[in-house]
Write a structure and sequence with these properties.
The structure is a homodimer.
Chain A: H1 6-16, E1 25-26, H2 29-35, E2 38-43, H3 53-62, H4 66-71, E3 73-76, H5 80-92, E4 96-101, H6 106-114, E5 118-122, H7 126-140, E6 143-144, H8 151-167, E7 173-177, H9 182-194, E8 199-205, H10 210-217, H11 241-248, E9 249-255, H12 257-271, H13 277-288, E10 297-302, H14 309-315
């Protein structure tokens, strides 16, 4: 496989710099004491629309031709990528259609509508949403942007770890949560080009351990179940990001639902920042696998902060 | 009255610099769009133990003689000042006794115990806790530190606005929540000496509007009721901080309970930071009184982040 070049990553970061925030890196002396590691949290919960997805969406937009921009874009997502595409489209003055499952939470639908995107509802199965997307492509000539299995999205996402590496030199390990693989692949590319001595590990809910099994088997595995509180991490890897991950990511750390919930509350209550359950997966991994991290400088990608606080407070 | 000197404020800031964090200033483009003002949030929710109280407590400790340190300190508080004294005492290796009402929330009691302070429970009335404090002073020779009506505490608190003024020059107004008056007096002194063109306003729950009435009548007023969600703001002004506030604070903005809750949720969900209800009072004031703030550069002291997220999520 051919990895993207260092210049590709630098270009991506430059092209989106006017559309995204450079997010802060936070530390917690209590977390450092607890784990024996020096932990740096790259806080994409403070990113525009509340998640790193804005980076990939912005970069995908920046690569569209004028003709493509004139016709607009379409994606399928019930989560953060829907909001990212909707916001990027609003900034660029471009039409966007988001295909969402008809059982999506009302709060997510409202957020996408709030950014001015058009929503088309589909049935709950993957095949339903794909049919809906194809209909939009065929009838309206819109360009499809995949939430994670798209090289331009991956390159945009790489800007997050580029910033982290620049601000915190000498990291031994960066841990990113893995769902569709777009953040993990971008993080791995950034470390490969800008800090080759930094290992990139993934964190994944044990209930949906497809990436863990994929790294073992060498092919893309899928999940039989989707019952994790980390709703952003239920998807599988794709044929564009998996080769990057397979080559550059050395380890996937699995955590339980209880560990995810406990880590999320710990960060809310002690660090006073709202992180979503998918982000808590990486924090939980640092706490659970601290034996492997003692004395190391460890970066964590806090992928987003779009948590439904009321619902989670009642549920967990 | 004689105000503390500029040098007093500088000294206080210097003496506590090794015990407190320099907290970040955050902005929100959405909040700016909503209000028409340029708003800067000085985030003491990220302070050690989660509130600005660490500043005043640290400075009070720094002024104790060796003999006083050897005997230890005592205070009464069921809230953030209890934790601040407990943590400062731990850092200094000094004994601390906290008198807490026996009906204090278990989570607050645990937090104080976690820092290693001794707790003495008193009855629920102010006279009960004062008797308990006097007994400790008489029997053990400990030094009493008042949470808000103490000049060294006020000078320590002034370091917060000193940092804000240094980082964000040219503020037209700084708004601080007012309860016992220790934060407001410190903020007013900092603006007086370091940015005299900056007005200092207070924000207060309408349900406990004693500071509002005190500024009108020119004497310390008390509350008949204490039913506000902003549990840090139920107390009255004191004879040391009131003269400072009366001379230097030009306005008290009152907000309703609904406005406080709504502002708190807005900050949690949109800015992704946990603030406690007392801090939300100042945010609510900026939203409600935006007509007076349009086009201005406005600093808000986010006083703390020690919110009981689960309880507030169910209750509000």
């Amino acid at each position: 496989m051919i990895l993207s070049s260092k210049q590709d990553l630098l270009d991506a970061r430059g092209r989106i710099s006017h559309m995204v925030h450079k997010t802060p890196v936070l530390t917690s002396s209590t977390l450092n004491e607890m784990t024996g590691a020096e932990v740096f949290l790259k806080c994409e919960n403070f990113q525009r629309m509340g998640a790193y997805k804005m980076r990939g969406a912005s970069h995908a937009f920046s690569r569209l031709s004028d003709e493509q921009l004139a016709k607009g874009v379409v994606t399928h997502s019930s989560g953060n990528f829907a909001q990212a595409i909707a916001l990027a489209a609003r900034i660029k003055g471009v039409k966007a259609v988001i295909v969402m499952p008809e059982n999506s939470p009302a709060v997510k639908i409202e957020a996408v509508r709030g950014y001015g995107a058009e929503i088309i509802f589909s049935g709950p199965r993957p095949v339903d949403r794909e049919e809906a997307v194809h209909a939009v492509i065929n009838e309206r000539g819109m360009t499809f942007i995949h939430p994670s299995n798209d090289l331009q999205v991956i390159l945009g996402n790489s800007s997050c770890a580029q910033e982290l590496i620049e601000e915190i030199p000498g990291l031994d390990i960066i841990i990113a949560p893995v769902g569709g693989g777009g953040l993990l692949a971008g993080t791995a590319l950034a470390a490969h080009w800008f800090s080759p001595s930094t290992a990139v590990w993934a964190a994944e809910p044990g209930n949906v351990d497809d990436a863990y099994r994929s790294l073992q088997s060498g092919k893309i595995e899928t999940n039989e179940r989707a019952d994790t509180i980390a709703d952003g991490l239920r998807t599988n890897l794709g044929d564009i990001n998996f080769p990057i991950i397979y080559e550059l990511v050395s380890k996937v750390l699995l955590v339980s639902e209880e560990e995810i919930i406990s880590a999320m509350w710990w960060v809310w209550e002690r660090m006073k920042i709202i992180i979503e359950p998918s982000s808590a997966v990486a924090v939980a991994a640092v706490i659970r696998y601290q034996d492997q991290l003692k004395g190391k400088r460890v970066g964590i990608i806090i992928s987003g902060g779009n948590a439904d606080v009321r619902q989670l407070a009642v549920r967990s």
